[in-house]
Amino acid sequence: MKYVRAAKLNIVVLLLFLLPLISVVFKLVYFKDALFGKPIVTERLIISQQFKTNQGDLDTTNVLLPFQSSHQRVSAEQIQSSAANFFVKELNGQRCLKITPNADRQSISYSFEFNGKAIKYEVDPTLYYNEKRNTFLKDFLFRSFYEANGNQWVFEEKLKSESINYRLVCGYDTAEEKPLLKKWIEVQIGDKWVPFDIPKGLFAEIPATYVDLGPVDSFSYTEPDSLKTIVSKELFINPDLIQDASRVPMNFLFFVEIFNLSDTPPNILAIILLTPLVLMIITIFRNAIGVQTFGTFLPLLIGISFVTTGLVFGVLFFLVIIAITGLLHYPLMKFGLLNLPKIAIVLTILVVAFLLLIYALFKLDISWALGTSLFPMVILIFAAENFIKASSSKGYIHATGLALKTLFLSLFCFVIYKSVAFAYVFLVFPELLLCVIAINLSLGTWIGLRMSEIVRFRSIVK
Hints:
By secondary structure, the protein is an alpha+beta fold. It contains 16 helices and 16 strands. It folds into three domains: about 45-110, no CATH class; about 120-205, no CATH class; about 255-460, no CATH class.
């Protein structure tokens, strides 16, 4: 009876492997160009801006916003304010966020996804700027450009002396590590405004990294002194590739459209889709390799929290929580307290420490990071509870080892959740989830030694 059941299970596992593989091969043969004809990953810039008004200042403040053009595409705009009235005003195609404070202390942040396209303009060599002198505009611009020697004011004075129509434009260069508001010149040539960035040596061209906020005169714009610009880069699935691959049968790409229409962050879809794969990997590490961690699937939750908080901040906070927990737990052990009250005391102190952290970040004007970090911090505090239990039963060395193994497996989960390629593969080949189930079925019948046990008992095995 036992062998019959095992044989049936083997047949099920074989079918769960073969059927999806046949489907995958079919798609690769007939829809290869649609699925992989373009790059899978595209990079977008997330630009966040924040400023605060002075105490008692109730004057309206203007913050220029980027606009749609042939050079740039702006999407996923979000505006958040702690205590200010604001609205978006448009003037001649230019956009401005007008803010009227209604409290002594407030902040407002604006974030958007930016895709830029480099444009190089061709100046008509037969175009005159002064027909009486028989002087070509392109020749004059070339000569003035090089004579300015990187000094934008000199170039501007030459344009002004010849009554050539120009304007000052402001924006950001997202290629800079800490971008500051910069200005460049646009000269009207025919019906186009052609950019010239003299300090950067850009003649009639604009790079893909420039965020164009438009001319500075439209709203009499001056950047607020407290304005901070933070540029981060995120990897996304190429939208052009999604459009091509949507014609392929049996895929989950329609979920991308559903999430876009509901304004749900795309990383949520990736987390949902890749969770079965992460669960399988955790099972392999625990059952086949023998890596013990806090809880069974706590590394999965911690990995998700790292996606939300960012890897550096998440890992740092995890290590700080474990360190503080160890320091608090040691003196409490001397009092001979029961386990649950002891855990409650440690977690209470951690909550107070967390509130002090919020206050410190607020004072340092980086409280914007806390909005997405509250829930992950709660998850990380659960790791503190597991550390207390492990240290109480088997000592600090064992508990520290479990903490490091948990962190290692959490980093593994984080890498998978951040992988755009993995997400795309499961979107177009959802039948691979059957392979995941097949591997879990095989792991469910594992009765041999784990890899860690083979190393541990190698002398006995010999």
